[in-house]
Amino acid sequence: MTFAQAPTTPPSLQLPWQEGFAQLGRSFYSPCLPTPLPAPHWVGRNDAFAQTLGLPDQFWEHPEVLQALTGNLVLAGSAPRASVYSGHQFGVWAGQLGDGRALSLGEIQTNTGLQEIQLKGAGPTPYSRQGDGRAVLRSSIREFLASEAMHGLGIPSTRALCVTGSPGRVRREEVETAAVVTRVAPSFVRFGHFEHFASQGQIDELRALADHVIAHHMPHLQTLEGAPRYVALLQEVTQRTAQLMAQWQTVGFCHGVMNTDNMSVLGLTLDYGPFQFLDGFDAHHICNHSDHQGRYAYARQPQIAYWNLFCLGQALMPLIDEQAPALAALESYKATFPSAMDQAMRHKLGLSDAHEGDRALVEDLLQALQQDRVDYTVFWRRLSVAVRESAHSTHAFEPVRDLFLHREVFDAWCTRYLERLGAANRQATGDAMLRTNPKYILRNHLGELAIRQAKAGNFAMVQDLLQVLHAPFDEHPTYEAWAGLAPEWASSIEISCSS
Ligand code: AMP
Ligand code: MG
């Protein structure tokens, strides 16, 4: 199949392209055209997001859109490119990496500001190294649903507009079919972009990149000049990352590959690979089967984020010079993360103010959950319902208690918890907890079921999951089964870096 540039883009499909990242110049990216895939078809479409962005009416109905978002034609005004970055992978300096299978189509002006549009899996780029630049259907569905699940949970993430599939073949452990995810974010700049220019001694580029991020994404820092400006940048990324980690931890999200090239300077969840939402609570859970040392185990994520921030700090040093202010900016993580975590856990428990002893209450709860591998999401949801029901029932906590093998441990904890709740209005507290503790998360087995059906040509579950995950705190009676405990076979799903 040969590459086809769109001879004409219909006037109703002329998107408001505006140069963003490309203003930085050619040291930052290589122009690169997508490589077509045969016979593309829709796998998943995010209508709600298309509307939020303000994409033209009938956007999806243009046959050019399916072709363009598979990489089979380039819309007028788009100038596809791949950016260069480096990074630390599994704690080791990996040198130059870059967008090996992500192609940026450019930025468009939307209802939510300037947004970059990327195709993931649209063919090789100058940074593909040994890779084929492709993504398989299963990992593309996972990224599509996970990005939107995170958004539904209120956790910052790159977004996903759609997935297209093709019978085109891709070789992984076995031969699979290709797919392309269209993902969207104000910026995909990674810690690794900064590490790249620092490692190459390209200090002018390093400064230009920092100034670009500040001008476009952190305008409140623009009044600062010289070293304080870049210290403030480091501090801002540190704060955003600390907040993000607290959100990941409290919802039970494991990223799986927290390499510095997968860390967003905007504090967005980025690059969904072997991620997993916890089923049974296990602080030591490792979701990536290629992570033999457990470097990215669930409980280690906040510490790893801090380590990654040090890499970013190191990269920014040529702009900062003095160590002390850079260290102080990084140090702010140590206050922000625990305080964000404490606050989030209090919200989950329905506690509106902070008391001494709250942290112990949380720690003891997590220990009890860990001991019995209690399902993390089901626990919080049942606890929320129980608090609400306890306004008028003495048996309200039984469904929570039933989740534990060591019931005496739960009973002891629950007594302390009820004391702590004190005279709070149970109905109102329970209602608030139901808006904090999701009923629906993208469990591995749900993704797996959607993938199996999609492989058989049925994409309904992808679309239905998308709807439910967009409103994870609401009741969806038709999909009650998706709020249940993971089936036995879920623990045998193996997700590696291969995608
Ligand atoms: P990841 O672990 O997915 O973040 O990928 C690390 C690096 O490998 C990034 O630079 C990716 O762009 C690149 N990469 C991963 N998979 C492929 C692939 N199939 N083809 C080309 N590059 C890839
Ligand atoms: Mg990556």
List descriptors.
499 residues; alpha+beta; six-stranded antiparallel β-sheet; two-stranded antiparallel sheet; 16 helices; 12 strands; binds adenosine monophosphate; binds magnesium ion
What are the SSEs and their pairings?
Layout: E1 29-31, E2 41-45, H1 47-53, H2 63-68, E3 81-83, E4 86-89, E5 92-96, E6 102-110, E7 113-120, E8 135-136, H3 137-153, E9 159-171, E10 175-185, H4 191-199, H5 203-217, H6 226-251, E11 253-254, E12 276-277, H7 301-320, H8 323-331, H9 333-349, H10 358-372, H11 376-389, H12 398-401, H13 407-421, H14 426-434, H15 444-455, H16 460-470
Antiparallel strand pairs: 1-3, 2-9, 4-5, 6-7, 7-10, 8-10, 9-10, 11-12
Helix pairs in contact: 3-15, 3-16, 4-5, 4-7, 6-7, 6-8, 6-9, 7-8, 10-13, 11-14, 15-16
The chain binds adenosine monophosphate and magnesium ion.
Adenosine monophosphate (AMP) is lined by residues 97-101, 128, 131-134, 257, 261-262, 271, 273, 497.
Please provide a written account of the structure.
Helix content is 41%, strand content 13%. The longest helix has 26 residues, at 226-251. The strands form four sheets. Strands 2, 6, 7, 8, 9 and 10 form a six-stranded antiparallel sheet that branches. Strands 1-3 form a two-stranded antiparallel ribbon. The mean pLDDT is 96. The chain has 16 helices and twelve strands. The radius of gyration is 23 Å and the shape is globular. It has helices at residues 47-53, 63-68, 137-153, 191-199, 203-217, 226-251, 301-320, 323-331, 333-349, 358-372, 376-389, 398-401, 407-421, 426-434, 444-455, 460-470; strands spanning 29-31, 41-45, 81-83, 86-89, 92-96, 102-110, 113-120, 135-136, 159-171, 175-185, 253-254, 276-277. The two termini are 24 Å apart. A hairpin with a 2-residue loop joins strand 6 (102-110) and strand 7 (113-120). With 499 residues, the chain is α+β, with helices and mostly antiparallel strands. It binds adenosine monophosphate and magnesium ion. The site of adenosine monophosphate (AMP) has 16 residues, from loops.
